[in-house]
Every structure is written in C-alpha cells, then in structure tokens.
Specification:
about 375 residues, alpha/beta, Rossmann fold, ten-stranded mixed beta sheet, five-stranded parallel beta sheet, 12 helices, 17 strands, about 35% helix, globular
Length: about 375
C-alpha cells in the first residue's frame, strides 16, 4: 500500500514539475544536422529486396500498428553509415543526445519520435555542467532505450561502434554511462580490444558537457527495424564469440525459448506446443536463468530457435546459422527479427496467433507449427 502511495505521489510531483517547466519555456527546440560539421560516409545507402512472403508480413506488421504501408512495409532502405565531425556540442549524459546552438539534434536520438520520448526532451535532471576543451569525444549511448534492454543495446548501440572503429583513426574517448550493466561493459571491452586508440570514459548521468570536438556516429538500423548490414553483424558476432571464448565445435541443437516467466507475450497453450516441439528434438530453455555467456553459447549452438516475440530473440545475432520461428499475437506484430534474420542470411518464419489479452498473451495455432516442423526437420520420437 505504501509503495502505491509513493508512486502516486511521485507522479503528481512530476506532473507539477513539468507544468512549471512549460510555463518557463524550458523545453528545447530540436533541429537536424543539415550539413553542419564534416560528414564522412563509410557506406552508401541501398534498398533491400524482399520476397512476396516477406512483403506480406511487413504489410501485416504495418497494419497491426495502423501505419501507412510506406512507413514500414515497402522499399525498406538501408541508410548510409556515416559519422559527423562536429565542433562545440553539448552532450547530455542521461540520454546520449547532443545539442548544437541550444537545439537538440534529432540524429543523436535516431528519430523525432525517440527524441521526444527521451529525458533529453522533457526532463530537467542535469545538475552539473562541465567543459571538455581538450581531446576528441564520441558516444554510442542511447538511453533510456538501451539501459536494460538487450535488443536496443545490440541493435542501436553496438553497431555504431563499428562505424567509429572504421572511420576514426585519431585518439578518441567514448563517453558511456557509468551505470551500464556488466555485460555491456564486457562487450565494449571485447569489441574495442583491437582499437587501443579508443578509450572508454564512464560518467554519471547527471552531466551536461560542452565538448569542443565530437564525432557523432549514425544509427545503423532504422527505428522500426533490426536489420544490420552483413559486414556490421559479422564484425560484432566474431568479436563477441572470441571475447567470450565460445566453443565452436559443439553439436547443433534445437531450442524453444519459453516466456512463461515473463509478464508479456506468454503462450497460453504452451504445454501442448512443447509436446509438439519435443517430437522434433526441441528442448525448452528459459533464457533469464542463464548468464550472458551461456546465452550466447546456447544461440551459437542452435540450428533452430522457436520463440514468442521478445527482446531475447536479438540473441539470434550470435547463432552461427539457424532457422527462426517467431510467434506474434495478432494485434501487435513486429518485423524486427525477420529483418535481423535477413541481414544474417537465416531462414525466418512468422506464425500469427490469436489476439492477445491485456498482457499480450495469446494462443499459437499448433497445426501451422506442425507444418513448419514437418517441412524443415525429421521427427526424433
């Protein structure tokens, strides 16, 4: 009861605080780079080719969110990988966003939508001001999105490091939130092992830092996508496999990732599903019970992964080569892992279940699962 009281009290205080900020016109304007600074391209943009089945699924995903098809389903474009060399920026350590001439820069948050949903746009929490006049700085930080979300960390943050390592040859300091999780710090160490000119500086989330020389790397994946160009994905995979010492000669396995311990997107007929999957040699795994090295090893060893949609599926990035079967509730369908699979060259199949309840839990059509299993695998029992 007390926790509920404090949550209500906090909401009222925050509401009053934001009203006060609006009265004093605290909220900053935003702007785009529009050619400011020096832009260096690593790759050019290109269009992805989709099969008819992939196009149909992308259109269904767009419809489930009431988007126009052109927003999400048609002509998916892989934008240029680039970096901006900027002067006199203000870095906001609680989000990773930057400001130029007192305006928030959209490209530093990947999109207007994400920018306006971050603390950079709406929260007065930067208490200490600093100035870095010496040295060169950069960041891959994307808070709050990636603070404790493996999908945003692997898709939004780490691919930006690929751009930094390929384009910045001078000594540079990478700014990172000091509260990053151990697995995030570990991955940074592995990915930067061969780049001694890039140093990581961990800082508090309560700084507004004026920086004389700053590199802003582009985001690799689009907002509604998890597609990574093959060179980017393979760079991350190889360095993480080597860093964690992943065994590469283990026999291949078939795994079902259960969400029965999660609060969202549980499979209501999971027991019947597990019985069916076991006939084809699948074993059930709860990823949250494994440390992160064990999760990577699990996915590396997998020749097939079956799961309901969820951030944990981002770990297919670390599979060597696998079939992916992903379940979706009918009213909320997302194409992130179809697009991630496409960049990795994996076989991907979506199966749409019933409309989800208030926690997006739903029923999977078992005959469709049985057909997928029969088409791709031999029964083991």
């Amino acid at each position: 009861m007390l926790s509920g009281f404090f949550r209500t009290f906090k909401r009222k205080i925050n509401s009053a605080f934001y009203v006060t900020l609006r009265l004093f016109n605290y909220y900053p304007f935003f702007s785009y780079l529009h050619g400011r600074g020096e832009r260096i391209n690593l790759t050019e943009e290109y269009e992805l080719d989709f099969t008819e089945d992939e196009k149909a699924f992308l259109k269904a995903c767009a419809a489930s969110y009431n988007y126009f098809e052109s927003d999400y389903a048609l002509g998916h474009r892989q934008k240029e990988l680039s970096i901006y060399k900027l002067k006199d920026v203000t870095f906001l350590s609680h989000t990773g966003a930057i400001m130029l001439q007192h305006k928030l820069i959209v490209e530093s948050a990947s999109s207007v939508t994400r920018l306006t949903e971050t603390k950079a746009f709406r929260d007065f929490s930067l208490l200490f001001s600093h100035t870095y006049t010496d040295g060169v700085y950069t960041t891959i930080q994307h808070s709050h999105w990636a603070d404790n979300n493996i999908s945003h960390w692997l898709i939004d943050c780490l691919p930006r490091l690929y751009i930094i390592t390929q384009l910045i040859k001078e000594p540079v300091t990478l700014l990172m939130w000091s509260g990053a999780h151990p697995y995030q710090k570990q991955m940074l160490e592995y990915l930067l092992h061969d780049y001694p000119h890039i140093k990581v500086k961990y800082i508090s989330k309560h700084h507004k830092i004026r920086i004389a020389n700053f590199y802003l790397p582009s985001f690799v994946a689009a907002t509604f996508s998890a597609y990574l160009p093959p060179d980017v994905g393979q760079w991350i995979r190889e360095k993480i496999w080597d860093g964690y010492g992943i065994e590469r000669a283990n026999p291949k396995k078939r795994v079902y990732i259960s969400r029965s311990k999660a609060t969202l997107r549980r499979i209501l007929n999971e027991q019947e599903l597990i019985v069916l999957l076991e006939q084809y040699g699948f074993r059930t795994v709860w990823a949250e019970d494994l440390d992160y090295k064990s999760q990577i090893q699990l996915f590396y060893d997998a020749e097939a992964v079956v799961s309901s949609h969820g951030a944990g599926l981002t770990n297919i990035l670390f599979a060597e080569k696998c079939h992916v079967l992903e379940f979706h509730p009918a009213k909320i369908m997302k194409a992130h892992y179809m697009l991630l699979s496409k960049g990795l060259g994996f076989e991907y199949t979506p199966i749409v279940g019933s409309h989800g309840d208030e926690s997006e839990s739903y029923t999977v059509p078992l005959p469709e699962v049985a057909q997928w299993l029969h088409t791709n695998f031999n029964a083991t029992s």
